[in-house]
Amino acid sequence: MVTASTDQIWEWLAEVPDPEIPVVSVTELGIIRDVRWDDDILRVAVTPTYSGCPATAVIDMMVEDKLREKGIEKLALERRLSPPWTTDWITDSARDKLRAYGIAPPVNGTASDGRMGRAARLAGSNLTIECPRCGSTHTDKVSQFGSTPCKAAYVCRDCLEPFDYFKCH
Amino acid sequence: MALDGRDPVKIDDALRPAMFDWLCRLGDNALILGHRTSEWCGHGPALEEDIALANTALDLIGHCQMWLGLAAEVEGQGRTADQLAYLRDAMAFRNVKLVELPNGDIGQTIMREFLFDAFHFELLTELSTSPNTRVAEIAAKALKEVAYQLDRASDLVVRLGDGTEESHARMQAALDHLWPYTGEMFTADAVDTAMTEAGIAPDLSDLQTRWTATVKDILDEATLTLPERRFDVHTGGKQGRHTEHLGYLLAEMQFLQRAYPGAEW
């Protein structure tokens, strides 16, 4: 039976890629909230990114597969809702990888507060998102949603490439 | 997968039936609006809108899974969220009539989303600080997504309302059509009162005040006119008395489980 240290477990989990954005790991995304031994049972707390994100079930499966592959026998995955996931938990290393992959990383502190009156809407449209390809700030939002719930669709007016923006959440 | 490690629901047994009903209202509103919204998948007026609507639907289905999961736990009869969603008949559904109405055109769909989101946002804001931690954690999770949905719907209502003559006329017609269904969200019955008195849920009349302020603000900016007729004409959905439209929706949504009982992915 494997009784690895929790530090070792975190290192193994850092090898599990996000299924939809495979350049970043589940630990870099900040969705692994806790790893602890409860007697001989390993308990791993995972938080969903978005409530309806179809990747959630796949992530649980990949985490389980990775830990089984490393020899963990007694494993309990817990779904933790509180505190709710925020993009503030995405590590700096992951932000660089997102950019290199063609996805603009989230601009912290710009999450929706549901109070988008005229003033806020105008301010929101001034949010500057840098094109991950050419670095231009001459970009426009095309749609509030992109290829997954966590992204919005943008286009660069200089290099003309469309790109995804990982929304602040 | 195992969902252990969570606090059990702490409530008086006497409150269980009302709380089950109340949680089904939260879950069913999200489920039915989510299903209606998903009907646009592949039919949106523009690719970006199509994708946005499908993603919005996904968020709502996610909320439904959490609320109905908790409802099943409170009921304590061994049912699951999936069983509640796929194996109840129309009269057991507890959603408001507003969310089961057919989509109409894109303007009507956006207007309905806005009118519901503005309520949903205020409700979840209150519930996110509910002393019942299981309720509060689901509300806090859903609130972040609903805030974004409300911003998006508000933006579109303004663009379409204060848009072309055609889009303005369609948005006004949508508002006039949907308005008499909105009052149901704020019409409290014995279930709502029991949950408010138990300190778990907010007073619906407080929500109505804030909802009205948001709706007036956005509709004014959208150059749309608030209807003068009563807003609480079509009620009963929360008690299981639905329009004929819900049955057709369920026939499609529940088909697989009815035809192949117990089928799993």
From TrEMBL, chain A:
SUPFAM superfamilies the record matches: Fe-S cluster assembly (FSCA) domain-like
Annotated MIP18 family-like domain residues: 7-68
InterPro entries attached to this UniProt entry: Fe-S_Maturation_MIP18, FSCA_dom_sf, MIP18-like, PaaD-like, Zn_ribbon_PaaD
Any Pfam family matching the protein: FeS_assembly_P
Residues covered by the PaaD zinc beta ribbon domain: 122-167
NCBIfam families associated with the record: PA_CoA_Oxy4
Name by which UniProt lists this protein: Ring-1,2-phenylacetyl-CoA epoxidase subunit PaaD
Organism annotation: Thalassococcus halodurans
From TrEMBL, chain B:
GO biological process, one term: phenylacetate catabolic process
Domain of life: Bacteria
Residues of the signal peptide: none
GO cellular component: cytosol
Pfam families hit by this protein: PaaA_PaaC
PANTHER family (alphabetical): 1,2-PHENYLACETYL-COA EPOXIDASE, SUBUNIT C, PHENYLACETIC ACID DEGRADATION PROTEIN PAA
Name of this chain's protein: Ring-1,2-phenylacetyl-CoA epoxidase subunit PaaC
Organism: Thalassococcus halodurans
